[in-house]
Design brief:
This protein has 452 residues and is α/β, with parallel strands linked by helices. It folds into 2 domains: 116 residues, no CATH class; 311 residues, Aldolase class I (TIM Barrel, Alpha-Beta Barrel), CATH 3.20.20.70. Helices cover 27% and strands 23% of the residues. It has 11 helices and 19 strands. Strands 1, 2, 5, 6, 7, 8, 10, 11 and 12 form a 9-stranded antiparallel beta sheet that branches. Strands 13-14-15-16-17-18-19 form a 7-stranded parallel beta sheet. The chain has a 3-stranded antiparallel beta sheet with strand order 4-3-9, with no helix packed on it. β1 and β2 form a beta hairpin. α9 packs parallel to α11. The two termini are 34 Å apart.
């Protein structure tokens, strides 16, 4: 069977997307350029988008000469639908004065057999953020009904007016529909200065704007618990409630608020009024082990820890923490696991940096030694060249060598940590999860036991 060989995709001066009949699609993985790997291509999923990359000339491979050529056409990238993880970036030549790309994920895309193809992998079968079958107008009708029924709850108004209507946030739209996972933004502050922060623009950032604006008030425990209780009544099968959203800072910086909200929802204050069931999750940078312990006691089910790397030096280059370091992250994970909290890593995958040998060893140790139960394979939303420069600081060897590819990386990681669950979304786990991950101190790297 002939190997699929998609052609280069580019855009003309009017923004029309077309393919180059004589050039092949080229991918970028960190500092390496090349053709798609065997088994790496998949048809562009429904609800994905194509982006034009201003100031960047598309690059393709001439199969006759074996040379890569930059064309006059504008480079094009794919933003894959949720539940998919991109495994390569597009190849292009950036012109002088080109703007820094907005904070989205940029996937390599080609054209063959009458359709677009991307380098990606579906990592979750959950249809949680698919909306193509929702009838037009339904989300807005449901959203308006919620605002009218709860006029005094500022958090509901924020989720509807800001997250649904302004940003079309998938989590907020699901809340409006009464299904899957409900967002619980709660924090205005953050103790990290992420290079690619999506809700606050740093003074040293070259970006002109962030994709979202940060929460402008602090909700009360009653407002948070009301959102949780409302969602639990509407999503009866598998309700998930998540602190830590894109429109806020880090929720662990306000532990009193979170603890009281969870206790109230779970019924600790008034068991006749509040009998909340479901998976209470916290998306966080995990900088506060003490706050994690308190939340676990109050009734937290799961914790998702975001990180770009399991190596402290690369983590610090991206997160730029102000009052914590990577050891606090690891301690928070251990604290959660000991308390029976299901821990996921929101791994911000970047081809050519995340999938290196150095990263594999570091990630396996972080997972095994601290009791991580799941990896959520998300892409880092950032200009690829900007991030590559930030991580390598001019020294490509700092990234840890060439990438092995997403599929190989996932396979080898699970071989080292066979209990790991893979996915994209925070899972429903009931009130309290059954955990297969080892407790801290129980796991050793297989090579250390003399295994292959």
């Amino acid at each position: 069977m002939a190997r699929l060989a998609p052609r280069l995709v580019m855009a003309d001066e009017r923004g029309n997307i077309l393919d180059a009949p004589d050039l092949l699609m080229v991918c970028r993985r960190g500092g390496e350029w090349g053709l798609p790997r065997p088994g790496e291509l998949m048809p562009l999923p429904e609800e994905s988008e194509l982006f034009l990359l201003p100031g960047r000339r598309a690059v393709g491979l001439d199969p006759q000469s074996g040379r890569m050529e930059a064309v006059d056409g504008l480079a094009v990238a794919a933003f894959a639908a949720p539940a998919h993880t991109l495994s390569a970036h597009p190849a292009y030549v950036t012109g002088e004065g080109a703007p820094v790309l907005p904070l989205f994920a940029y996937g390599a895309v080609g054209f063959a057999k009458g359709r677009f193809w991307i380098c990606a992998r579906r990592v979750d079968d959950d249809p949680r953020q698919q909306f193509r079958h929702i009838k037009p107008g339904r989300i807005e009708r449901e959203a308006e009904a919620l605002v009218r029924a709860h006029p005094k709850n500022r958090l509901i108004r924020h989720i509807i007016e800001n997250c649904v209507r302004r940003y079309s946030c998938p989590a907020a739209r699901n809340f409006a529909l009464g299904r899957y996972e409900a967002p619980l933004p709660s924090s205005r502050a953050c103790n990290a200065r992420c290079v690619g922060c999506i809700s606050a623009k740093g003074a040293d950032s070259p970006l002109t704007a962030t994709p979202q604006c940060r929460l402008a008030f602090t909700p009360t425990p009653e407002e948070l618990a009301e959102v949780m209780a409302l969602h639990a009544r509407r999503e009866k099968d598998a309700p998930v409630f998540s602190f830590g959203q894109g429109c806020e800072g880090d929720p662990l910086l306000n532990p009193d608020l979170l603890v009281e909200s969870v206790r109230l929802f779970r019924g600790a204050r008034d068991p006749e009024k509040w009998t909340g069931h479901g998976t209470v999750n916290c998306n966080t940078n995990a900088s506060r082990p003490g706050a994690v312990a308190r939340l676990a006691e109050a009734g937290l089910t799961s914790m998702r820890v975001s990180l770009n790397s399991a190596r402290p030096e690369l983590y610090a280059r991206y997160y730029r923490p102000t009052d914590y370091d990577f050891s606090d992250v690891a301690e928070s994970i251990r604290t959660a696991r000991r308390a029976g909290v299901f821990v996921s890593l929101n791994l911000l995958f970047f081809p050519g940096v995340t999938d290196t040998e150095a990263e594999l060893e570091a990630l396996a140790r972080l997972v095994g030694e601290n009791g991580v139960s799941m990896i959520e394979w998300r892409n880092l939303n950032i200009d690829p060249e900007w991030y590559w420069e930030a991580m390598t600081a001019g020294d490509a060897a700092a990234a840890g060598g060439g990438g092995m590819g997403l599929a190989a990386f996932m396979k080898r990681l699970r071989k080292l940590c066979p209990w790991l669950r893979y996915g994209y979304f925070n899972p429903w786990l009931g009130d309290r999860a059954e955990i297969a991950a080892p407790l801290p101190g129980e796991w050793r790297m297989p090579a250390e036991k003399g295994e292959a």
